[in-house]
Amino acid sequence: MSDVNSGNPTDVSEHLARQQCARQWRHFLHALAAEFAAALPPADLRALSRRIGLRFATELPLPPQPTLEGVQAAMSRQWQDLDWGWVNLVQQADHVEIAHFCSPLASAFGASATDWTTGFLEGVYQQWFDQQGAPGLVVSQTQASDAWGSVSFRLGR
Q: Does the pLDDT value for residue 112 go beyond 50?
């Protein structure tokens, strides 16, 4: 384990990233991810993770919001209440950029699982936008997760 007191930014980053998942769950979730990865191909893991995200968002629905700013605030409240970071939504000409910051997925499941665990966020955002009256638009990941659990998506056709 690195020495956080060294002041080395890498040491501090590793320490803070470990804090994103409760110690009581970290080893269990890493083992769970390893078993899933041994049993299923990456595309199936991502699809499963996305379906779990859809179910999660169904169980934690957003209230109707009349503006994109309201949707962003409602989503961020849900995430922050769960210590899952926050989201930034930016309207572009033909799509909405979705930037999720500081999810605990890498800390919880391990960095090697982020390719498929981010499907969870994709599913959550899909369901939440569908709830807001945007069926027919698709959420898709546009950028891989970084060391802090930040990841980008796109809502569009």
A: yes
